[in-house]
Amino acid sequence: MSAASQQFKHDAERLTHDLRHRLLIQTALKKYEVARDSKKSRYQDWQSARQTAAEIKWDAVNHLDTYLEEFASKLEARGAHVHWASTSEQARQIILGIVREKNARSIIKSKVMTGEEIHLNEALEKAGLTVVESDFGEYIVQLRREAPYHFVFPAMHLVRGEISELFEEKLGSKPTNDPEELMMIARGILRNKYITADIGITGANFAIAETGMISITENEGNARLTCALPKVHIALMGIEKVLPKLEDLALFMPMLATAGAGQALTGYNSLYAGPRQPGEPDGPDEFHLVLLDNQRTHLLADAEQRDALHCIRCGACLNVCPIFKNIGGHAYGTTYQGPIGSVITPHFRGLQDWKHLSGASSLCGACTEACPVKIDLHHHLLQSRRNAMARYPVWWERLAFKGFAFLVNHPVLAGLAPPLARVAQRFHPLIKRTPLDPARPWTRSRELPQVAKQTFKEFWRSRKR
Amino acid sequence: MKITLFIPCFVDMCYPHVGVSIVQILERLGHEIDYPEELACCGQPAFNSGYWNETRPIAERVLKRLKDAEVVVIASGSCGAMLKKFYPELFATTAHAGAANELAARCYEFSDFLVTRLGVTDLGAHFPHRVTFHDGCHGLRELGNKKQPRELLAKVRGLDLVEMSEAETCCGFGGMFSTKFPMISTAMGEVKCTSALETGAEYVVSNDASCNMHIQGLADRQRLSLRTIHLAEVLNSR
């Protein structure tokens, strides 16, 4: 068992018994569901919208080479620097290179999950820089020195009292239970950081090939300040974020808002197309875009699961996932939690270490149903299990299933199962729930069904006579 | 019509009354039942665990035995999904692909068979209880059987259906998942039971005995006043 798998089981054990955590997350996501459904009902036909979105992403992902080049060349034509990073190490070095060249001391960041993916903050801090997250949720988890809990709602596991205590401890503020006051405490500190930061780092929700623009969606206005105030803007994005046309945003922006947060449209949606142009009053002097592969092309090469690159990181699959709702985001130990994370992490970080994630699913399919771009998520988890067992079979499990298949295909042997089970059932109470109990994983929390006095086969035979 | 019945392994052993109810209902409707005793299992436990090569011999035997069946009725949404949806995937690009697709077209989950194929919703059943319906994930999302069981329940005399808020949420069974990740599975089951209890229903009705096994197993351990029952048993009550 990999270390990641052990950690996962350990954390899942703890969190599934934490009823306060369960109630907190499920209550929050109930509210999300109500809001999402009310916004979904504004679409003339949500299913057609999903289909259209899936087709646009299919086109984009299956012609990624052409769209990326078109996007990059349009952006470069306006004076932007476009960098191509194959690995997270390359991406970090590119960004550190820019930082050194500019003699930067402080950095302001808006929410960028690819930054989490490549552990950018750690690299920047190690190089002696001050890094401040400006998204409210990200700011909170940064103060707590922990990873985002959910890639859309990074601090959803915390209640106001905990945030107030954190601010009291780290920022010396007065305790308060008022969300607006808490926001104002953070804002008071952050406003100054935007002005003094040498570099602003953002992600990108979409990249438009046709016009060479990136689109950033946010609710707090922090990304706009991060882009507008520092002299240098660095955007880091995965290569799969490209969309062919500007008009595609007319569908993708509302869809991202509705599926992701139950909003009709997110508060701020901004397009950026390079540094300040001659005659323009504002914008950064320099604009760098880092395109990150980091195993995305590995996923692209997998025809079966390629559609996982359609993902627009809305988080809808997490919000409906009964696994996520019971273990929360941190237990996954991944940058991208929930069903989409369980599909892509084995591609990004290795199947052997992360194959347990596909096993940790009841394959209920709620994720696939919720996905606005129709990624076949739960079937990919099933395929992942198959791929994992083909490459790293568990010898005793394979033997057991071979034995099982043999039994099933030999009716005389299979016919022995009910009488044997009846005998076993008699003696089972002696060892039930003890370490000797072979059914312990089940019986530790549930009762086993009883073998019937007359099985269906026995009923059928008795009728034939 | 001659109907071939597919009885899943655990229904045969632990929930035979589900199969008995199906036989009695279909015979009352004037159909002839064929039950291939030699088919013990659809192979789903191996398939869902990733052991597709080990699953194929089981599935091949099912394909062969059901080759000439006019229609196949399956007493479980989950095993129904296995035959109808996953066999074609399991045999895609093999010599059995055609046979798997043909069989899939002739397979029906029990409630879907009654409503969609036979066009029957009123079976003259009488079940004077307040119930809530649990949608098994495979039946619901792989096979799309949302309306069928409810149309059938609507015609049962005396029955009062109260929907629970988490009707479509997985009960946490998930086959081998329930023993590989028992803590998550159990937590999911608790959410399900809480939601079912909120309705004040006497029974949780489902068209999947495997979900019932999980919900009942948990309810019994936690001494919750919840009783599970299969849809076929409700429809066979008079």
Topology of helices and strands:
The complex is a heterodimer of chains A (465) and B (238).
Chain A: H1 3-16, H2 19-40, H3 46-62, H4 64-77, E1 81-85, H5 88-101, E2 106-109, H6 113-117, H7 120-126, E3 130-133, H8 136-143, H9 160-171, H10 179-196, E4 199-202, E5 206-208, E6 213-218, H11 222-228, E7 232-238, E8 242-243, H12 249-261, E9 268-272, E10 286-292, H13 296-300, H14 316-320, H15 322-327, H16 338-349, H17 351-354, H18 356-359, H19 366-370, H20 377-391, H21 395-408, H22 411-414, H23 417-431, H24 440-443, H25 456-464
Parallel strand pairs in A: 1-10, 2-3, 2-4, 4-7, 5-8, 7-10
Antiparallel strand pairs in A: 5-6, 6-9
Chain B: E1 2-6, H1 9-14, H2 16-28, E2 32-34, H3 44-48, H4 52-65, E3 71-74, H5 77-90, H6 97-106, E4 107-109, H7 110-117, E5 130-134, H8 137-142, H9 147-154, E6 160-161, H10 177-180, H11 182-198, E7 203-206, H12 209-221, E8 227-230, H13 231-235
Parallel strand pairs in B: 1-2, 1-3, 3-4, 5-6, 5-7, 7-8
Can you give a write-up of this model?
The complex is a heterodimer of chains A (465) and B (238). Chain A is α/β, with parallel strands linked by helices. Chain A has three domains: 1-42 and 317-392, no CATH class; 44-294, Rossmann fold (3-Layer(aba) Sandwich), CATH 3.40.50.10420; 415-464, no CATH class. Chain A has helices at residues 3-16, 19-40, 46-62, 64-77, 88-101, 113-117, 120-126, 136-143, 160-171, 179-196, 222-228, 249-261, 296-300, 316-320, 322-327, 338-349, 351-354, 356-359, 366-370, 377-391, 395-408, 411-414, 417-431, 440-443, 456-464, and strands at residues 81-85, 106-109, 130-133, 199-202, 206-208, 213-218, 232-238, 242-243, 268-272, 286-292. Chain A has a six-stranded parallel sheet, with helices on both faces. A four-stranded mixed sheet of chain A has the order 8-5-6-9. In chain A, a hairpin with a 4-residue loop joins strand 5 (206-208) and strand 6. In chain A, helix 2 runs antiparallel to helix 12, helix 9 (160-171) crosses helix 10 and helix 16 packs parallel to helix 20 (377-391). The relative contact order of chain A is 0.12. Chain B is α/β, with parallel strands linked by helices and 238 residues long. Chain B has two domains: 2-117, 3-Layer(aba) Sandwich (Rossmann fold); 130-235, Rossmann fold, CATH 3.40.50. In chain B, 52% of the residues lie in helices and 13% in strands. Chain B has helices spanning 9-14, 16-28, 44-48, 52-65, 77-90, 97-106, 110-117, 137-142, 147-154, 177-180, 182-198, 209-221, 231-235; strands at 2-6, 32-34, 71-74, 107-109, 130-134, 160-161, 203-206, 227-230. Chain B is globular and about 50 Å long. Chain B starts with a strand and ends with a helix. The chains are: A alpha/beta (465), B alpha/beta (238). Chains A and B meet through helix 1, helix 15, helix 19, helix 20 and helix 21 of A and helix 1, helix 2, helix 3, helix 4 and helix 8 of B.
